[in-house]
Design a protein that fits this description.
The chain is mainly alpha-helical. The protein contains nine helices and no strands. Helix 1 packs antiparallel against helix 7, helix 2 packs antiparallel against helix 3 and helix 2 runs antiparallel to helix 5. The N and C termini lie far apart (60 Å).
Length: 243
């Protein structure tokens, strides 16, 4: 048991740092190769970019494990690449042309804009806003502000699988969502849980542990969807043929 704990303690930080590349490189290449991001939820980059930016600003107060901080920086680079590729290859939405504004009931059509610029403006304003708040408040580890942005960022990250679960359910298919991403998420959950709960007390805040457990349950649900639906045709594709 001690050997397993030692291995997890040694390998988990390396896996966490590399996980942005191992989880999303195949998805990026697949979208670029097929010239379509159909089946892939654009909310995944939204969630990961927002959460990673918040986690970076959480670190000065919480001083959590450095491997998690490095992971957040690398995740931003990978997710920005994924967002750019997905937007460049965004398919028509329900018969409409690409980038037609389809807010789906979201305020101001948030993250469903008909141009690419608002996506990057949102990320820039979020980072600048947090920078200003940190400059003014200079929070420490015990401040309410530090705890708030920490739990907010990790809660947002914990919802990562939900948009893809919803997209798969609507289409009754997992087409467009790479099984390599799912596999890395599930393997990452096991590594994170072992690392979070096997680390010395105080090294990993409880916010990481609670949100990690919730995300692991959601990833398991996504795995169940892949087993049920497979990588077959979407309902919309079948309906268009029948009509």
């Amino acid at each position: 048991m001690a050997i397993i704990s030692t291995l997890i303690g040694a390998l988990a930080p390396v896996f966490l740092i590399l996980s942005p590349f191992t989880s999303y490189t195949d998805q990026i290449l697949s979208i670029h190769r097929t010239r379509t991001s159909a089946g892939f939820s654009l909310d995944i980059p939204l969630i990961m970019l927002t959460a990673s930016i918040l986690k970076i600003f959480y670190w000065p107060g919480a001083r959590y494990d450095i491997s998690l901080l490095v992971q957040a920086f690398l995740m931003i680079g990978v997710q920005m690449t994924l967002l750019k590729v997905a937007l460049d290859n965004r398919p028509p939405w329900r018969g409409e042309r690409p980038f037609t504004e389809t807010g789906e009931g979201r305020p101001f059509g948030f993250w469903r804009w008909n141009a690419q610029r608002p996506y990057w403006e949102y990320l820039l304003f979020l980072a600048l806003g947090l920078l200003v708040m940190h400059t003014l408040l200079q929070p420490d580890g015990s401040s309410l502000y530090t705890r708030f942005i920490g739990y907010l960022g990790l809660t947002i990250e914990a919802t990562l699988p939900l948009p893809q679960i919803q997209a798969n359910y609507r289409a009754q298919s997992c087409k467009g969502f790479r099984v390599s991403v799912l596999g890395n998420w599930l393997f990452g959950d096991m590594m994170k849980m072992g690392y979070f709960f096997g680390s010395e007390p105080g090294r990993v805040p409880w916010a990481f542990k609670m949100c990690g457990m919730f995300q692991a349950c959601c990833d398991a649900c996504l795995g169940l969807q892949y087993w049920m639906y497979g990588n077959g045709e979407e309902i919309s594709d079948v309906d268009s043929r029948l009509s």
